[in-house]
Amino acid sequence: MKKIFSVLGLLFISGAVAVAQHIDYDEYTLDNGLHVILQQDNSAPVVTTAVMYHVGAKDENPERTGFAHFFEHLLFEGTENIARGQWDKIMAANGGTGNANTTDDRTYYYETFPSNNLELALWMESERMFHPVINQIGVDTQREVVKEEKRARMDNAPYGRLWEVIKSNLFTKHPYRWAPIGSMEHLNAATLDEFKEFFKNFYMPSNAVLVIAGDFDKEQTKKWVNEYFGSIPSISRPEKTKYVEDPITTQINATAEDPNIQLPMLLNAYRTPSMKERDARVLDMISSILSDGKSSRLYKRLVDKDKLALEAASFNLSEEDYSAYIIYAIPMTGKTLAEVQTVIDEEIAKVCTELISEREFQKIQNQYENSAVSQNATSEGIAHNLASYYLLYGDTKLINTEIDIYRSITREEIRSVAQKYLQPNQRVVIDYVPQK
């Protein structure tokens, strides 16, 4: 499941701004289309093996939503050579940990083992790609697991429908309009053959990237990669359908009710460009200015100074085709959503019309420098970043060069991008209120 959280924080390392480490890696492509990235670091005896597939919720049939997330669960059921229920036991018995997650754009599987178990990890991931057992008992079991997850995270959780509400109002044509967990009605109606067809359409070498990061011998690893993945048949990767949304030119107002909340929430959502665009990174910085920490503008104004809200924040949810810039606030008891909206509008207007201070600018530059270090501090972090930069951005080099893009952003550019995307006539305003 997608978790909404900020990966940025003002970290202090030895009292100074950290310098991002240069990540060395090798990459090549097998004859069957599987792209392989090797990042060798022998400083600690652990290694992460990761496979990212270019399939997410946006690749689903609108009448069969939830398939990509469902497979995140289903492909732990077992394979022709790994008995049902044994996957996690094999990992644990060999000192490993692992997991998987799904977004609108991709599905990601990974394991971290002591380095002497790399061959085991490669064999397991090749089994998942080539020999999974997709049968009725596995489908029925995982349907119940997904139902319980939806009940726990969405149906019965306070503000659990937040992202579903935003997406359904912000997008009308693009598959981003539904949440990755999908519809339980669709999953219940789906047949075993439909699940098998989904796997056949998307889980092939040419639609994936394999990343190995950590402590390993490079030449031996290449032999194992070829041994376990090289014989998987080559299949052409699926063509991605492109969806174009009409621009929002007039503010859209909506109301959503939630039986699990007692306090209303105000949501402002703007449709913004792909995470591959420079403007998306500028919007990341604008999010930091507005809501990263208690010294940020929205928090200081709404929570500290005016005491209108219990909580207020914004974030740029970056995705492959479009992104969503979201501002939310929970008013204090006795305060109204309209009062909160007025202050949000004032703070957005300042970012659109005034240059941020040099001090504020230096603070967010420091944040991004330190974030670049922290995100690449472990083999798991490096593996995820290498996979994402290759598969979603189409540029593996960004693991080393993205920080230079952030460094090159100016105060004038921050103001200009805010003016471009954060206008009242370009947003959806949602009153997310307790169910009557």
Automatic annotation (TrEMBL):
It holds the Pfam family Peptidase_M16_C. GO terms for biological process: proteolysis. Residues 36-174 form the Peptidase M16 N-terminal domain. Keywords: Hydrolase, Metalloprotease, Protease, Signal, Zinc. It comes from the Bacteria. Residues 1-18 form the signal peptide. InterPro entries: Metalloenz_LuxS/M16 (IPR011249), Pept_M16_N (IPR011765), Peptidase_M16 (IPR050626), Peptidase_M16_C (IPR007863). One of its GO terms (molecular function) is metallopeptidase activity. The keyword Nuclease does not apply. Residues 190-368 form the Peptidase M16 C-terminal domain. Belongs to the peptidase M16 family. This is Predicted Zn-dependent peptidase. It comes from Dysgonomonas macrotermitis.
